[in-house]
Each structure stands twice: as structure tokens, then as C-alpha cells.
């Protein structure tokens, strides 16, 4: 019994046009011309149908707090942390939940149906953890929210962080976080990585650390993270977020580091929008871009995902929950302009972060969850170029968000008519 059929879809891997038959919230069949005349149908001819966007790195507790209590004047990571520290004692569960739910609405409208959010556990009241656990439960029918216990002020540096982090994990946060480059010394940073990996191994949890978010080429905590991953047998369960110091590292050292990261099967999470705005702030000219070495890490076989990191918070005044904006920034910053590289950029906001989060049933194949996004574009490259509209977002086979196609009415001399940007292509040979 088929519940719904999408007719004539283009798939991200180039298959198409194909039909997608859905039953019981799962994909039942993917094939051309599926025979089910009585099933409800949606015609998606010429449209890309993708699995949903996934954000591997976000801060749901800080989102939409821009200007509270004031704006970040220097634009630096450190002023952002200080500002957040001013806001934190005033946070209430109701306000946190309300902001997070509003962001989730925006995310769904953009076809973003899975988010890994760091949750600051520096305040021993743990109001952030309480609030985000409530949000995780409330959005579960339409969005997968994974929560990282994140000691924003430093695991050793903040006096109550160690106990608070363990309590947050006891409450049910999903992932062990860290911030080694923000500890008082390099040695403390390395010790925090070792301690947090031990906790994760004992609890059977994944690890995702803010790691080396700095222009300092001597910030090498990712090396310790890889070594501790191997020591504890955590291969494939540990992610290094940001890794911006790798941008500035000596090439010879990197030639040793990347194979070590590959041996540890580290996931790499880069945050292009935030890295390009926060890094290089101490440079005059030339100014470093700061983003980690995405193409080189991908070429070495590491799973690289992109994160949005921030939307309208103490660190970043922009953003709109659009993972195609994130991928588009990565293409520019890392000069990922070849056809293959642009395809990889699309994968870095879909399949690659789905691997980081370990999402069950992600993809377009029989048995996968019928979570799908219909885009106003023919293929992933066009979706990326246009930051194409999400015409329809489906969760478990049900339409949960719809946006009209973008069509402009032109009134030009001799050229009156409608314009759909997704139909403009170079002349055929
Ligand atoms: Fe972050």
C-alpha cells in the first residue's frame, strides 16, 4: 500500500527522472514509472529531490540572542565568549526554549531536519541543558536534535565545569564536548582532551570538540584528539570542530598530521561562515581566511561536514538556517570551484554530516526514512549556485513545509514575461 509517490525526481547522485514511492513513513521503492495509479502523487518533474540538510555544528542555546545584552564590537571570538558570559546568568528556560523553537521553525522551512547543537554547561544551574532537552523532545516529530555537553569556559578553566559536564551527561546529553584551545595552557588543553575522551569511552558516547579555533599554528590539540581517539578505541566516533589553526600550520607538520587524523577516523567539522568572519582578526594584510584545509582533508579520505555554528548570536549577526549558504561560502573560501569539489560541498551539508550524527535511515533508497526536500533546481550544483528554494519539505512521508517557487514578473521593453532563475542555463553546444 503506497501512501505517496513523488513523480519524476532528479536525485543528487545523478539518477533521474525516477519515482519515489513512500509507505509507512519510509521509502518503499525508487524507480522510473512506478505503477500505483491510486496513490496520491506529487509531480516534481525537473526538480532535485534530496535527503534533508544536516547541520553538524550549531549553538541552539545562543541563537537569536543578538544584541543581548549588547553587540560584539570587536567581532572577535573572545569578545563573543565574554558577551555570552554576561548573558548567561540571566537566561531562563522559557526564553531558551522559545528562541530554540523559533530557530527550528526556520530550519524546517530550509529543509534542515537534523542539527547537532553544542549546549554550554558552564553555568552549574544547567538551565541550558534543561531547556535544550525539552526542545529535543518537542521537535522530535520533525527534527533530529543531538546535544553536545560543551564546557564553553574551559573544562579545567571554569571552576564548576567538570562536575556540571558530568551532570549534563547524566541528564541525557548525547555527546561529550570540549574546548582545549581555551584552557589556560597548552598542557591543560591536552589534559582536557585526554580526560574528556576517557569520559566518552567510559560512557559509550561520541566526542565533538571545538578544537584549535585559532589562527595560532602552534595550537595542535587535534593531534592529541587523534591520539586519544586511537588510545581509547573511539575511531569513527570523534569529531574535531573548527580546526582553523590548520590553516596557518607549517605544511611539513600537516603532512604528518592528516594521516594521523585519518588513522583515528576523525570526523572534521568546518564552519565556513564563522571561520571567515572570526579568524584573521589580528592580521593586517594579507588577512588569513582561517578555514581548515577542507579539500586536502577530503582528499585524504576524512569525512568532512560543514556547520552553520551561529545565527544571530554574540559571534555572528547574520545567518538564516540555510545550509546552502554555508556550503556556498565554503566553495568560495576553499576555492572548491571544480565540478567534483562543488558536489563535495553539497555532500558536506547532507550525507557527510548525516554520518557525523550517525543518523539512521538517511538517504534515498528503499528502507530509508521518507525525509525529503524538493528544491527549485535541477541538480545539486544548481541548488548550490542559486541557494535554491525548498519548495517542499517532507518528514516521514508527510509534507511539513511548503514555499512557493521564486518567479519574477518582468516588465521590460520587448522582454516582458516571467523569469525562473532555475531555468537559465548556458547555451547548449
Ligand atoms: Fe561552535
Please give a structural write-up.
It is a single chain. By secondary structure, the chain is an alpha/beta fold. It folds into two domains: 4-51 and 363-423, Urease, subunit C, domain 1 (Roll), CATH 2.30.40; 53-357, TIM Barrel, CATH 3.20.20.140. It is built from 14 helices and 18 strands. Strands 3-2-1-4 form a four-stranded mixed beta sheet, with no helix packed on it. Strands 5-14-15-16 form a four-stranded antiparallel beta sheet, with no helix packed on it. A hairpin with a 2-residue loop joins strand 15 (390-395) and strand 16. The longest helix is centred in the middle third of the chain and has 18 residues, at 186-203. It is globular and about 65 Å long. The relative contact order is 0.14. It binds fe (ii) ion. Residues 57, 59, 118, 210, 309 line the site of fe (ii) ion. Fe (ii) ion (FE2) is lined by residues 57, 59, 118, 210, 309.
Notable characteristics:
alpha/beta, 20% strand, 429 residues, four-stranded mixed β-sheet, 2 domains, binds fe (ii) ion, TIM Barrel
Radius of gyration over all CA atoms, rounded = 22 Å
CATH class of the largest domain: Alpha Beta
Largest sheet: 4 strands, mixed
Total number of domains = 2
Uncertain ranges: none
Shape label? globular
Number of strands: 18
- CATH superfamily label of the largest domain: Metal-dependent hydrolases
Alpha-beta classification: alpha/beta
**Per CATH, which architecture of the largest domain?**
Alpha-Beta Barrel
In terms of DSSP E residues, the strand content is 15-25%
Terminal CA distance reads 45 Å
Bound molecule types: fe (ii) ion
- Percent of residues in helices: 25-40%
Amino acid at each position: 500500500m503506497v501512501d505517496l509517490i513523488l513523480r519524476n525526481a532528479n536525485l543528487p547522485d545523478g539518477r533521474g527522472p525516477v519515482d519515489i514511492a513512500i509507505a509507512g513513513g519510509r521509502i518503499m521503492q525508487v524507480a522510473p514509472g512506478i505503477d500505483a495509479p491510486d496513490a496520491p502523487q506529487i509531480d516534481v518533474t525537473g526538480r532535485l529531490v534530496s535527503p534533508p540538510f544536516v547541520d553538524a555544528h550549531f549553538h541552539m542555546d545562543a541563537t537569536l540572542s543578538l544584541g543581548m545584552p549588547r553587540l560584539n564590537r570587536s567581532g572577535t571570538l573572545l569578545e563573543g565568549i565574554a558577551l555570552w558570559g554576561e548573558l548567561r546568568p540571566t537566561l531562563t528556560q522559557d526564553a531558551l526554549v522559545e528562541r530554540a523553537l523559533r530557530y527550528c521553525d526556520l530550519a524546517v522551512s530550509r529543509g534542515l531536519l537534523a542539527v547537532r547543537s553544542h549546549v554550554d554547561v558552564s553555568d552549574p544551574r544547567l538551565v541550558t541543558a534543561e531547556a535544550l532537552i525539552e526542545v529535543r523532545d518537542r521537535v522530535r516529530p520533525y527534527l533530529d536534535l543531538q546535544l553536545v555537553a560543551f564546557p564553553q569556559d574551559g573544562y579545567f578553566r571554569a571552576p564548576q565545569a567538570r562536575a556540571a559536564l558530568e551532570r549534563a551527561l547524566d541528564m541525557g546529553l548525547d555527546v561529550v564536548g570540549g574546548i582545549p584551545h581555551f584552557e589556560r595552557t597548552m598542557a591543560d588543553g591536552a589534559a582536557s582532551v585526554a580526560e574528556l575522551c576517557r569520559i566518552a569511552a567510559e560512557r559509550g558516547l561520541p566526542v565533538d570538540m571545538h578544537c584549535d579555533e585559532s589562527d595560532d599554528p602552534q595550537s595542535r590539540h587535534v593531534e592529541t584528539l587523534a591520539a586519544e581517539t586511537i588510545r581509547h578505541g573511539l575511531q569513527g566516533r570523534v569529531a574535531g570542530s573548527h580546526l582553523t589553526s590548520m590553516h596557518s600550520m607549517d605544511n611539513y607538520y600537516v603532512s604528518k598530521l592528516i594521516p594521523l587524523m585519518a588513522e583515528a577516523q576523525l570526523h572534521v567539522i568546518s564552519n565556513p561562515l564563522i571561520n571567515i568572519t572570526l579568524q584573521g582578526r589580528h592580521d593586517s594584510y594579507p588577512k588569513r581566511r582561517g578555514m581548515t584545509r577542507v579539500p586536502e582533508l577530503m582528499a585524504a579520505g576524512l569525512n568532512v561536514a560543514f556547520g552553520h555554528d551561529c545565527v544571530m548570536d554574540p559571534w555572528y549577526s547574520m545567518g538564516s538556517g540555510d545550509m546552502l549558504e554555508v556550503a556556498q561560502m565554503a566553495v568560495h573560501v576553499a576555492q572548491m570551484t571544480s565540478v567534483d569539489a562543488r558536489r563535495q560541498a553539497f555532500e558536506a551539508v547532507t550525507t557527510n554530516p548525516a554520518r557525523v550524527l550517525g543518523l539512521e535511515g538517511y538517504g534515498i533508497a528503499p528502507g530509508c526514512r521518507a525525509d525529503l526536500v524538493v528544491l527549485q533546481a535541477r541538480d545539486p550544483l544548481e541548488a548550490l549556485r542559486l541557494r535554491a528554494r525548498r519548495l517542499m519539505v517532507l518528514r516521514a512521508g508527510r509534507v511539513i513545509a511548503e514555499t512557493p517557487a521564486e518567479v519574477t514578473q518582468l516588465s521590460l521593453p520587448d522582454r516582458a514575461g516571467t523569469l525562473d532563475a532555475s531555468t537559465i542555463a548556458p547555451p547548449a553546444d
